[in-house]
Specification:
3-stranded antiparallel sheet
């Protein structure tokens, strides 16, 4: 009976994902691109009977979230910035429960608060630049927006600027043990979980990625240190407690229409090992879903072999400064029979598709770029822009369809374990 219920839940989730994609993205190829942002169907959807269907299906929050992601910063509600120095001084001086370089867990007035740090670009006075303020306003608003649990994100309650960085505030739900752990810690310190647990974890991660991508949002920093696990009991977390997965590390997250401006230190191999080669150094290409999918592939490889990505190389990639070399080595590790024997050839195929960038290869072998292809040969700028938008949306739809296909495969494997 438990198996039947699990399979019914799986089919229900599949149907919901398909409906979500159709409602949010289905009509966007016919919309015009404006203001340099991704074309969406919200001008049509929100004024039609589809919005009532979305509410009935529980997808109204998804549509609103996508509208915030793709909309201009000026259209956002009141920013969540905390202006009173006394308030953020309280957080800065609060007792620390857990701490790392990118986040700190503190207790303030009876609440457990996760603080996440994001460095900003400073202006001539050492204050956040206009661009930095716009980005964090949009980021905090998106993370504050009501979201179904399937997004696997904590809700941001505000942010403040201090000591050259933004600090985002995430209250920990009362039902969770605030003493989280990360996937990177589990990979190094826990026993290998059972096969079913590893598949379930892979599926949860892929489903969360599909949710982000379905509203045109890319995470940009998927790695095992940004995957948090909370237990529902006050006890140490182990590999047996990987149910409550939450995404974090929003320091690099942005709407997919955003152009990369961050210069990545090639010496930062701990994080670079998860980055697509095109995103090493000073990226010259827009960060898109394929780059997120590459990072996903690295984490799926870690889950399959239950070992950190750095440990796949004898020197932990210490002297490797070329992203393509790291990628080639990880692909060879994914092709190795050890992954196939531990997780099966279908799981192995998923990892290789993510790392090789062959997801959707048959229909979208390259990402559309401005002034290329059909759009460049059209005399009318408006027609060219429309064609470019259509090509780009077609590409996005195809990538998302392949993420859903990955989920289908993982669902099927889990249901038959």
């Amino acid at each position: 009976m438990e198996k039947i219920v699990q399979e019914l839940q799986s089919w229900n989730e599949r149907l919901q994902r398909i409906l979500q994609v159709k409602l949010i993205q289905g009509d966007s190829a016919t919309s015009n691109m404006s203001g340099g942002r991704l074309p969406t169907a919200f001008d049509k959807v929100l004024g039609s009977a589809l919005i009532s269907s979305a509410k009935t299906l529980g997808l109204a929050d998804d549509i609103e979230l996508a509208r915030i992601v793709t909309g201009p910063t000026a259209a956002l509600a009141k920013p969540l910035k905390i202006e009173d120095p006394k308030i953020f001084t309280t957080y800065e001086n609060a007792p620390t429960i857990l701490q790392s370089s990118s986040r700190r867990l503190v207790r303030v007035q009876g609440w457990n608060i996760l603080l996440e740090y994001k460095e900003f670009e400073a202006d001539g006075d050492g204050m956040p630049s206009v661009s930095s303020r716009d980005k964090v306003d949009q980021l905090s608003t998106i993370l504050h927006q009501n979201k179904p649990s399937r997004y696997r994100t904590l809700q941001c309650q505000g942010y403040y600027a201090n000591n050259g960085r933004f600090t985002l505030l995430f209250p920990i739900p009362a039902e969770l043990n605030p003493r989280y752990t990360t996937l990177s810690w589990l990979l190094e310190n826990s026993k290998v979980p059972g096969l079913e647990q590893r598949f379930a974890l892979a599926r949860k991660l892929c489903a969360a990625m599909a949710q982000l991508h379905s509203v045109f949002w890319v995470h940009k920093s998927i790695n095992s240190d940004n995957l948090l696990f909370f237990s529902r009991e006050v006890q140490p977390i182990s590999a047996d407690s990987i149910e409550n997965l939450y995404l974090s590390g929003w320091d690099y997250s942005r709407a997919e229409t955003g152009v990369s401006s961050q210069c990545i230190d090639v010496q930062d191999i701990k994080n670079n090992v998860y980055r697509h080669p095109e995103q090493w150094g000073h990226p010259t290409t827009r960060f898109d879903r394929m780059h997120d999918m590459y990072s996903l592939g690295v984490v799926l490889l870690e889950i399959g072999r239950w070992k950190p990505a750095l440990s796949f190389h004898s020197s932990k990639f210490r002297h490797v400064e070329i992203g393509s070399a790291v990628r080639s080595h990880l692909i060879s590790c994914a092709e190795d029979r050890k992954l196939r024997s531990s997780m099966g050839k279908r799981y192995q195929a998923i990892v290789l598709k993510c790392l090789q960038g062959t997801i959707g290869e048959s229909e979208a072998t390259s990402r559309p770029t401005s002034g290329s292809g059909a759009a460049a040969s059209v005399d009318s700028p408006s027609v060219a822009l429309h064609n470019e938008a259509s090509l780009f949306v077609l590409y996005l739809k195809h990538i998302l369809a392949n993420i859903l296909q990955i989920l289908e495969t993982l669902d099927e494997i889990v249901c038959h374990l």
